[in-house]
Amino acid sequence: VQRAPGQGEFGYAQQFVEGPQLQGQIDLQGLAAAPVQAGTTAQQAIMSRLAPQLQGERQALYTQLVNQGLRPGGEAFNAAMQAQAQKENDLLLQAAAQGISLDQAARQQGFAEQQARAMFANQAQLQGFGAGMEQAGLYNVGLGQNVQQALATQAAANQAQQQAFQQRLAGAQFGQEAELARFGAGMQTEQARNQAIAQNTQLALQSGQFANQAQAQQFAQRLAAGEFGREAQLASFQTGQQAQESVNRAIAQNFAQAQAAQQAANAAQAQAFQQRAAEA
């Protein structure tokens, strides 16, 4: 019987491949700081720096006009202060427009940075997903190879079991043929024994018939010669008949006993043959 290959004899396919370490975020520590702090608009920053300047200029103009002898409410004083207010208004409008422009540029820049970071993170995720898919594909290929190897191993084991079964079946057939041969020889022996018993029975019956004929002949001779009385001859004949009947009964009883013993032996041999055939 060929030995079936053991588990793992063909080896196992590689199932896991370590994927690359992907970067999911951008390091912003090395970048220059933004001109405007988070939570503050450019317009607010410009106005916060321009307001003290305008206030200082207004106060200086007021002091200058007073020192020149102009009084608040006068035409010259009011004209100078109105010109200062117009100047301040123009500066505030310019600051507002500049602040709005800077805020829009900062917002666009921040949006572009966030978009770039999101695209970078998505690209990293997609690369990680592709690596995972490749790893899963390699794992599935490895499983398929292992399944094929297991099937080949099982097929070899089944072939070995089939071969062993055929060998045991052939051995069992040889045993059955031997049992049949022994049973046939036993049956022939029993038939010969039965023939001998029957022959002995026929010989005994023939001997009894010869004895009966001899007794009848003797009785006829004694009856013809008149040696004995009629009653004595009849008594002798009846005695002889009874004795012969006893002999015949004994012979018949022996034959029946021998026949019963032979039948019991035949039944025992048939039972033994059935048991050996069942074991085979």
Provide a compact summary of the structure.
By secondary structure, this protein is an all-alpha fold.
Descriptive account of the structure:
With 280 residues, the protein is mostly helical. It has helices at residues 42-67, 75-225, 230-279. Helix 2 (75-225) packs antiparallel against helix 3. 1% of the residues are buried. The model has no long low-confidence stretch (mean pLDDT 79).
Radius of gyration: 68 Å
Q: How far apart lie the N and C ends? A: 21 Å
Q: What is the molecular shape?
A: rod-shaped
Helical content, roughly?
Answer: over 70%
Content-based structural category: mainly alpha
Strand content: under 5%
Topology as H/E string? HHH
Top keywords for this entry?
single chain, 280 residues, mainly alpha, 3 helices
Produce the secondary structure layout:
Elements lengths: L41 H26 L7 H151 L4 H50 L1
Helix pairs in contact: 1-2, 2-3
